[in-house]
Amino acid sequence: QVQLVESGGGLVQAGGSLRLSCAASGRTFSNFAMGWFRQAPGKEREFVAAISWSGNMMYYGDSVKGRFTISRDNAKNTVYLQMNSLKPEDTAVYYCAAAVYYSDLLRWDGVDYWGKGTLVTVSA
Known about the structure:
Distance between the termini: 39 Å
Number of helices: 0
Number of strands: 11
Low-confidence stretches: none
Oligomer: single chain
Mean pLDDT: 93
Shape: globular
Structural class: mainly beta
Radius of gyration: 13 Å
Helix content: under 10%
């Protein structure tokens, strides 16, 4: 099993920035592709970003392109999500995710492991 623990969520004003972190333990972190999803109240869990195990390939949901950046540090067993130019519609619980294959992280039902989530609230 892989355990994923998110941190860095909180309250921020529109236009501000936050950096989320996800610390992994259990199975070897570098063997997994990693990603982020988010879920707002009453909404479906949606894809935010993904990164391959090597860090060479990244993919973003259309709503966050140009504003969010995903990265990973395999030596620290950690994946990050830098969120800039935040909007009220970015308000959601953000979940860290892991999968054996990069392509499986592009849909929520392809994910192998989930974190508990961290709440991001963006005020107008």
